Amino acid sequence: MDEVWVHQCRDDAEFSAVGMYASDAEALAWGNAHTNKLYVHLNKSEAIHSFIRNYNVTVAAFKWKHRPDALEHLLDWILLTGDFGSENQAKGEEGPGSERK
Q: pTM, whole model, 2 decimals?
C-alpha cells in the first residue's frame, strides 16, 4: 500500500496540467476527473506541490496581464505607491530569482 497526497484542483485546466506533470514525473498514483482530485505518491509530493504553486502564479499573472482594465489598475498602483517597477522590469527583462527550472 502506497501513501498518497491528495490535491483538489480548482478547475479542469489545473487538473489537466498538474496531472500531466505528475504523470511525466511518475508521481501520479490516481486521478479523478469527475471531482478534479489528484492522488500523488507521497515521496514525490513536494515536487508536485512546487509545480502547483508555480502553475497558479503563472495563471494569475496571465489573467492579470490580459485583463481589459489591467493598465488602469497598474496606473492607479503607480500613482498610489510611486512604484514604477524594478530596473529589469523597465527593460523588459526578468529579475533575479526568476530563472526557470
A: 0.65
